Amino acid sequence: MLKPYETKLKSIKEEIQKIGLEVVESLEICQQALVEKKIENLKDVEITEKKLLLKSNEIDNIIVTTLALYSPEAKDLRQLVSFLKITNELVRTGSNTKDFAKMFKKSYSDDLNTSMILEYTIPLLKSALLSLQTATSIIDEIDPKHIEEKYHRVIVEESKTDDLYLMIEKNILKLITKNLDLSKEYFDLLSSLRRLEKIADRAVSIANLLQFAQVGGDIVQS
Fold this sequence. Notes:
Layout: H1 4-35, H2 49-70, H3 74-107, H4 114-137, H5 144-178, H6 183-215
């Protein structure tokens, strides 16, 4: 039978994973909509910052209560402090996911160079999704080697999102110079794609926090 503190810690992890899964599933809906070229299906992304914030606050209250009741030792204290920060990062990823779906759907039209847009957007979304999936999976890891491997995998995917965003930005700016009438639509699309890049950034932050929780060291500011 688990001790009361271990039960609390297990419950906190499970609730954090639920938020992470909700964001991941929303990104998967986005990915499927783009791959199938059914952009209208982006409306099915129902995740909202308000709902995530409510869940995040509930988890934070449990964490604070746990800290007050059990006075955890060094490693456990690191975990709980990290979890407090991670809930905020997940709220931000959820908000960016919703913004991407809403902005991309609104800006996307057949008047634009849709083939080029999707050529870069799909792998950009895929890398953002994989970075978040990998980062949140670290919460169950206890082997420092596996944690390190997953952390570096997140870094690689985040780097891919940076490169892909720069490429699509360059191509879209070229298109704008050729068709100024569509400049607003293209700029709005770029703004939506920037949200995907931010999701990957948040994934790195989550991975770093979980690495800190398990093996210590320094928290790298994102």
